[in-house]
Structures are given as C-alpha cells and as structure tokens.
Amino acid sequence: MNYSNEKLEKNRIAQSIAKETLKEMKDILHPGMNEKLIHDIVCEKMIKKGSGAFWYHSLGALVLLGERSVLSISARDYIPDENNILMDHDILTIDVSPTFDSMWGDHARTFFFENGKYVSYKEINDPLYKRGIQAEIILHNTLIEEIRPSMSYEEAYIHLSDKIRSLGFINLDFHGNLGHSIEEDEKDRICLEMGNKKTFQEYGKPFTLEPHIALKGSKTGFKMEDIYYIDGDRFSVL
Predict the structure, then answer these.
(1) Which residue among 12, 61, 86, 161 is least enclosed by CB atoms within 10 Å?
(2) What is the pLDDT of residues 28-51, one digit of tens each?
(3) SS3 breakdown of the chain: % helix, strand, coil, rounded to 5?
(4) Structural domain boundaries enclosing 160
(5) Other CB atoms closer than 10 Å to residue 34's CB: what's the count?
(6) Distance (Å, rounded) from C-alpha 46 to C-alpha 103?
(7) Exposed (0-12), middle (13-18) or buried (19+): which is 126, by Cβ within 10 Å?
(8) Nearest by Cα to 107 from 8, 213, 44, 21
C-alpha cells in the first residue's frame, strides 16, 4: 500500500472523531430540532473531540432532513435550513468532515425516527426506511466481499452501480460518483466513477464509499459513508 502507516493512523483518529460524534447524536436528536441546530451541535462536538479544521470547503457537517434527504449539494452551496424541522416520523442524514493534523475523516449516516423516537436500523418498521438502509448495507458488504485492490476505480463503480440498479435504486450524487480518495488537499481527490482507470493498488490511498440513493421518484434519500483502506488482497473499514 502506497500510503504511510503514520498518515493512516491520523486518518483513523479523525474518523474516530466523526464516528463518536454521530454515535452520540443518537441520544441528542429529537423532533422539533432544525437543520441549523443539529449542524451547530455536531460541529461543536467534533471541535471538542480534537478536529482542527473541516476539510470539505470548511463545512463541518451537512445535515439534510426529510425531503431534503434526496438533495445532493456541494458544501460550497449548502446552508442549513432553520425552517426544516425534524418530525415525529422522519429521516435525516448527517455527513461530517473532521480532520486530525490535516488528515481527513469522512463519515455519514442516515438516522430514522418513528413515533417521535430515534430507531436503530434493526428496529425500523417503515417499509421504505427498511428497504433503503438494507440497500446501503448490501452495497458496503459488496465492496468488502466482491471488490479487490487489483480492480480499477471504474470497475468498482460499474459493479456497484449495477448493484444499485438491481436493488431498485438510483444514484443521487450530483457528480454521479460513489466515493473518492482520501487526500490532504480536496482538489487532489479522484473518484469512484466512469473513466477512472487507476487501480486501487496503483493509487494506494484510502477512499470512501458513500452511495447516496433513492427509489426513483421518491422524496426519501439514504446515505451511508465509511472510509476503506487496502488490507492485503481486500478492503477493511477504517
């Protein structure tokens, strides 16, 4: 792997800031909160946990509630909506971008509320919510089980895109990709997309898988993002 253990360890620390923050949000989120309040709480938590900066256009957290969960937007254009309120039966996605010593974390989860309470993935009753999160889990499992470091970014993109379609979903990403490399300068990112012939082994850097998906015509979007790194002849979650 053409990536130092020192850098990977700093990525791991940044990612732990992201994961711990979103895990804690499960006990904080409640109906009546708006996007701006949630955004501010998430960013404050990451700073307190040691995030020195936010790498994605200086935006710490992209929070999208309800019908805005299908919105794919750059951090440069995102403004948290103070009028968009978390309802008793609702969905929201939080996508965070902390750093540790300039090295990135990158993590996103979709949260579900039923009957006024947060529900874990195993507790979901809503058929659409259940179908969406099951699709996300399948896609991440597909990466681990079927994609190999010897494959190109394009080959992985084609394989995962076919899986998205077979599950009955569409890719919502405004660039059309499914993830990107982990860098120190966001301008250096390469993506899981058509035309990228580099193999994971050749490029050597960790990368994200972040399928943003919905059923065609639906106003409910789902997203799950993790960082993966080359671990022998397969990938592991950072």
Answers:
(1) 12
(2) 999 999 999 999 999 999 999 999
(3) 35, 25, 40
(4) 5-237
(5) 16
(6) 14
(7) middle
(8) 21
